[in-house]
Amino acid sequence: MPAPQTPISLRRLFDEIGTVDQVGIEERVAKHTTRSLKKKSKVFGLRLAVTMVDLTTLEGKDTPGKVASLCQKALCPHDEGDIPPTAAVCVYPSMVRHARKHVGGTQVKIASVATAFPSGQAPLKTRLAEVRAAVADGADEIDMVINRGAFLSGEFGLMQDEIAAVVEACGKATLKVILEVSELETYDNIRAASFLAMRVIRPGDFIKTSTGKTNSNATLGNNQVMLEAIRDHYLATGVPIAMKPAGGIRTAKQALHFLIAVKETLGDEWLNNRRYRFGASALLNDLVRQLEKERTGAYQAPWNFSEATEGY
Question: Homologous superfamily of 12-295 in CATH?
């Protein structure tokens, strides 16, 4: 097991990392929405966003057939227009072996939520066993949820020790650490949780906004707080951490605003699917629809695009 983390108080942590200027954040994200992409730049942004999608199904009614359909959609988002594959499919651990049959060995990665997703309320031993099982079945990436109770109780060392244990359980699999920002309540807490996670994960691992299972998910505001935390951590340590907003991003217009935030905060080095992802299902069809509009000059009806979560 990794060595336990040194205890730290919230006040001391904020002395180290600073707090968030909420007004400043809101002003910055408002400017992101005023940027306008035209013609080739818009097509570039839309295609880039497609390659960043973790196409997701996380429902109790998921079946092998539904996962097969999801995988086919990830590999070929549309029959026309030479649209690239998505970054990954994201499924429950029990569905990893089914996803592997369809995208194993392709450029589409298999991501699996784990650690008692979405609540994280299970013994650590159980959560780690779930991670190991998903990796053994073929998961390339693990999306874990942090112990929000530990964070909100000020048990930061416990939170970090658990993340470090998951890092170890992942082996070579990439880790995405879900903060569940709506339960952290403030921008200051989101920044603090981001730093605590980044200090124990590896270069190329992710911090992620949300599970998509709460009333409030990814917003330009909480995305900006996390991007700036990544920037400040990188400037201080040289360690590049990746980012994944998830939940509530449904339109191509929204996705382009998020990409503008990435470019203006972190630069072009983060404009790829190794360092930025979207956790989404409905988003992909709108991206494809907008690309078809740019290609043909006319909007296609929504029902002309297959549903990503359509089962057999």
Answer: Aldolase class I (3.20.20.70)
The whole-angstrom separation of Cα 69 and Cα 307 is 9
Active site residues: 143, 208, 244
Query: Please, which residues bridge with residue 302 across strands?
Result: none
The closest of 181, 170, 109, 182 to 144, measured between CA atoms, is 170
Q: CA-to-CA distance for 283 and 308, rounded, in angstroms?
A: 10
Task: Return the residue matching tokens 């650690």.
Answer: 115
Q: What are the pLDDT digits (tens) for 136-168?
A: 999 999 999 999 999 999 999 999 999 999 999
pLDDT in tens, 101-120: 999 999 999 999 999 999 99
Q: What is the largest CA-CA distance in the chain?
A: 59
Decide if 169 contacts 132 (C-beta within 8 A): yes
* Cβ atoms 279, 113 nearer than 8 A: no
- Domain residue extents for the chain: 12-295
Measured between alpha carbons, how far is 291 from 277 in angstroms, rounded to an integer?
19
The answer to pTM > 0.85 is yes
